[in-house]
């Protein structure tokens, strides 16, 4: 293929701190979340002064707070700790009230982080943590395993995508938020957590004991396959992923191959800018990568940065397939839909997770924060995939029997498609 080497090596965008992803047990890559001082401060600065200055915050005129204060004083005057347990402080009660307010919206991705949880969250987004190494999300009020991380304790214990988590130790997950479930599953390295799960085809639930370990999230891997096919496996979308992806594409060019497989199975997402950068290697500058609908006309369109190095319309020898499954979420879905709908790649595998909302992390104090759903994202063709996911061009299941036998029919199907052979099955 024709290749401008200097142009390619120099083309990489600067990632901002906008995060796209689902919750990984022990690390929280939250869908479309704006984190960090700049974005949060920008949001806060747009609010009326009465909302920013704690001393001048007033109650809404249409809300009767009398029952709240009545309950506060009744509890303060009459509550006796059962079993001699230590009582909470007044500040703990304030944090509990704010958490209840956030939970009242009924959105599993809108929550409040009191000091302990906020410190844990900020520690975990660095990429290393103590946990069991699996991605979790919420569907229809149930905590669902998106996918175990490769080589993780969860994978070794037999956890698979689609497993529903019914209990964590002795606690039912029936009314838990994702963050509450993650906090229970986490724990000191070397300790054990018991998960009661049931798979999509299981008749009865089972309880699995898993020992927590220090988890390092893998990012990318490459391999040269037969018949001129190159494979890139991308596990997350971190601040480094766009650069790592560029380097992987350089290896692709150096291999002399002209057919590319991008494996996004089990990829929960991460930084939005990384997804936009990656899409830009395949799209001209006028192509849409993703749309964001913030409500009240507050919309934004992310266009390709126009690197446009690999494009089947300019180079008919270049062919691309993307592997996806129920563990492919958010940023992985953004990249997949952008290349699918713009005619660059065919998707192979099973329906993606379907995470189409955007969260923002807003600091309340120096030690606490609110994570709030502030928008939804749509594909270039204006489709909202939340709860639905993206339908692959070629639907190819991967069973536990396949995995146990070391067979990967999805990868085989992608290879056949790139070679012009028949795939196992297709969408209508």
Short description:
The protein has 13 helices and 24 strands. With 428 residues, the protein is an alpha+beta fold.
Q: How many beta-strand segments?
A: 24
Reported by name, the CATH topology of the domain at 218-357 and 375-418 is 2-enoyl-CoA Hydratase, Chain A, domain 1
As a percent range, the share of helical residues equals: 25-40%
Helix and strand content put the structural class at alpha+beta
Level-1 CATH class name of the domain at 218-357 and 375-418: Alpha Beta
So what's the overall shape?
globular
What are the low-pLDDT stretches, counting only 5+ consecutive residues below 50? 2-7, 26-56
**Tally of helical runs:** 13
- Major sheet: size, sense and barrel closure? 6 strands, mixed
| Average pLDDT taken over every residue | 83
Question: What is the CATH superfamily of the domain at 218-357 and 375-418?
Answer: 2-enoyl-CoA Hydratase, Chain A, domain 1
Taking all Cα atoms into account, the compactness measure Rg is 23 Å
Q: For the terminal residues, how far apart are their CA atoms?
A: 32 Å
